[in-house]
Fold:
Amino acid sequence: MSTEEAPVAGWYWTRWPSREGLEREAESRPRRVLTGLGRIVLMAVVGWATFSGGKQSGWAAAVAAAGLAGAVLLCAAYFQASRAQRPAATYLLAGALVGAAWLANRGQAYTLADTLWIGLAVTALVRLPVAPALLTAAAALGSYTAAGWSSWLSNAATIGGATLLGFLLRLDIEARGTARRLLAQERAARAAEAESAALAERARIAREIHDVLAHSLSAQLVHLEAARLMLDAGTEREQIRERVVAARRMAQDGLAETRQALSALRGELTPVGEFLVELTERERAVLTVTGTPRPLAAEAGLAVRRTAQEAVTNVRKHAPGARFAVELRYLDGEVELEVRDRRAPRGRSAGESAPAELAASGSGYGLLGMRERAELLGGTLLAGPEDGGWRVLLRVPA
Structure:
């Protein structure tokens, strides 16, 4: 035997049976009543067999009565100690039961003695570790054989039947314990899966809410902030009015996007191509589609839509007035979305950023949300400056 197998083998011989298998299931009231009646009947039969026939007289009857009363108390204590799996108390009580059976046998209470010996052997094989169980069963059945008056064939049948019964009951308890442990693990796994699904759904809803708010409210904030700066600079009223009208239009668009977000949560989405056409026409951007268009999975289509919205929002915030282009590429097994600033806004150099008031608007979680959405689908998202502008590239399986 290898060194790795030795501890396992030793643990097998000293391991107690499964606690889960010994635990009682919730029983109905009729079943509890029947179980209690069965125990009472068994005790009555043993008691009647012990004192019937007038065989006991004098000290023998007293010893038999004491053995019967002590046996009931010892059995109760033995069952409780073995259920709690207390080694010292269990083994001590098992030895006491063997002694009580010998006292009952000496008092001519043969039925009580045989019941104690055989019952102890069966319960030991069921409740004790393998090594102590075999020793206890051997002591009990050996005492039964030594004190028995039956033929060797009857003794062999009794011993074999008791051993087989104890072995089968032990297998049943182990199987029951394994089934209960697996059931508990399955319930825990289902609970963890449900919690994980709830967290994922919360994250998805949070991303949807952020995308809608960041896209619509940030766009409104850009125009309103620009209107405020124009007021401070004494710009003509007509130009300021254009900014306010644009903010109003963005509010209307925000309501439409909110409805789309609710539709997305319900799984009702317009095709990605139609959405990008509407988005680029509204923003006066250039849309290019390469490859063969095909229907996208709900999650992949949603990732493309939200990334396009967030990229457009970032252009409004950080480079108001800049022109940009959107390109959708259908590849083998993937789809790519690229949003790129084509040139800096009029009157501003390529490296100059937007006013601080505009650039600081928003929650700052746009890129993080887009990247998380892409990674959840097994894709990637790249975002950074390029050629004096800004480039966002999304690639997801589709």
